[in-house]
Design goal:
The protein is α/β, with parallel strands linked by helices. The chain has two domains: 46-208, 5'-nuclease (Rossmann fold, 3-Layer(aba) Sandwich); 212-292, Arc Repressor Mutant, subunit A (Orthogonal Bundle), CATH 1.10.10. The chain has helices spanning 68-79, 85-92, 110-113, 115-119, 139-153, 170-180, 195-200, 212-228, 238-248, 254-266; strands at 11-15, 18-19, 29-33, 47-51, 61-67, 97-105, 126-128, 159-163, 183-189, 203-208, 271-276, 283-288. Strand 8, helix 6 and strand 9 form a beta-alpha-beta unit. The chain starts with 10 loop residues before the first strand and ends in a 10-residue tail after the last strand. 31% of the residues are buried.
Length: 298
Amino acid sequence: MQDRRDLHRERTYEIKRLIKTPACKVGVFIVHFKYGFPSPLLGGFMQYLANYKEETFDKVRTTIFVDYEAWFYGCKNQYQTEPDVIDWFNHVKDKGLIDDVSFFADFSHEAIKEHIVKLRNISNSIIDCSKGEKTKDYTDFIMLDHMYQKLFRQQDTEHFILFTGDSHFQSIVAFLRNFKQKKVGIYAVEGSLSPLLAEVANWYVKLVPSNGRIESIQRAILRNLVWVKDKIDIVPTFTKTVQVVSRNFTEFPENEVATVLSDMISNGIIRQEESILPYNGNVVKKLIYEESDCNEVI
């Protein structure tokens, strides 16, 4: 699993303005990825980290296979949110002439069962991989079986798109490319894409799901840092910032604020530098947020 702290290595940040106070107009924060296109980090949108490997997308017959179980639990366990299927489909639909989208999952569990209705907004090809009393998960195998059926029954399909990060699919992707001259693209939740699968595909896109609660905490942290910037008697340390934000926004407990702040530091949004406390001379690590020429936060 890729360390989320390494994400900033794939991004070039252009920080324009992020914080809104009475003194200035609403600002913007834009993230430019190494591959792909700009996407708001704090604006409530899903981010797409794309590596197209010089791929061009001809309008050829394309079919899509989605391991929705992996997508659902990847979002839930890693990002405490749910898949945004409509946003994803708007992103994928220009990758070819799509003739079919199939979703695979064990829909017997209450947490995921209700998503069938949402998936029908995209496709009626929804395959329930419920395993009954069995303990083994058959979703991968059922999806593989459908892929081979599609390959041999509809040989004019030129482009296969998979939503999975599982290395179990490496062999079929290699087979499709090397022996059937097909193009294969991969979508996966960030942190779940196997390097082996990414290497063998023609292209891949990693999704960073949006989480409204996390984004709200990020904004609260940045508002605080901008407010204290001109206060010469206040040095915003990690611990003090966590305490102040949690106190001012009581719906955010300190442990959640600390986790979000740590990620913002790791991703290069906020940096730390040594500073001397004015009242006792102690050396601490001060939090620095370098906003543009406007001291405002959205």
